[in-house]
Specification:
By secondary structure, the protein is of the alpha/beta class. Helices cover 53% and strands 12% of the residues. The protein has a single domain, classed as P-loop containing nucleotide triphosphate hydrolases (Rossmann fold), CATH 3.40.50.300. The chain has a six-stranded parallel beta sheet, with helices on both faces. The protein is globular.
């Protein structure tokens, strides 16, 4: 198979990091992950979201743009555990909706985002992981990250509504939807093989682009 760039998208707790790790290992692809440990704005953001949301989002945008470009320029295929598109269409919109980013900062960020994204190569496939909100909340609580302790069902539902709206209009590449509550690709090798097969078929243009719920 020719070199490919695959992006993984999905709500918090959907399984993006897990599927990226396993697909990377299984197909010997380069992997890229969200920058959290080395993000200098996260502590300030969680202390005062309204003050630091613009700074945080600009940092994420720069990190993800470089990651996306580096993956596109790499000699082999790559899979990234969050797409750059989610920075604006999901999380920046949510920050504005919740009153944590004012309109001036929102519009400034959008101009920067549009300019950055216009210069990036399109991915070959977007893998969208979906799961019910109660499943997401259980996974979030199970992993016990302090920074995620305040995540509520209402916030996850808000993000889910933005994902649905964004994907309805997304046409940069094909989208493979995987309902991650139906497949244990973390612990079950057979389920992982199903996911690998579907990704390969989707990249070859030979598959229906939904996986899960009796499929």
């Amino acid at each position: 198979m020719a070199k490919r760039l695959v992006l993984v998208a999905g709500n918090i707790g959907a399984g993006k990091t897990s599927i990226t790790e396993r697909i990377g290992e299984r197909l010997d692809w380069e992997t890229g992950y969200e920058s959290v440990a080395d993000n200098p704005y996260l502590p300030d953001f969680y202390a005062d979201m309204a003050k630091w949301s613009f700074h945080l989002q600009v940092f994420f945008l720069g990190h993800r743009a470089k990651q996306h470009q580096d993956a596109a320029n790499a000699p082999g295929s790559a899979i990234l555990d969050r797409s750059i598109y989610e920075d604006f269409y999901i999380f920046t919109r949510a920050l504005r909706q919740m009153g944590n980013m004012n309109e001036r900062d929102y519009l400034s960020y959008k101009r920067i985002f549009d300019q950055v994204v216009s210069g990036l190569p399109a991915p070959d496939l977007l893998v969208y992981l979906s799961a019910p909100v109660d499943v997401l909340l259980h996974r979030i609580n199970s992993r016990g990250r302090e920074m995620e302790s305040s995540i509520s069902p209402d916030y996850l539902k808000l993000l889910e509504s933005y994902y649905e709206e964004w994907l309805h209009n997304f046409d940069d590449c094909p989208v493979l939807t995987i309902r991650s509550n139906d497949l244990n690709f973390v612990d079950d090798p057979a389920d992982l093989e199903v996911v690998v097969e579907r990704i390969q078929k989707a990249l070859a243009g030979r598959d229906e682009l939904v996986l899960g719920e009796g499929d």
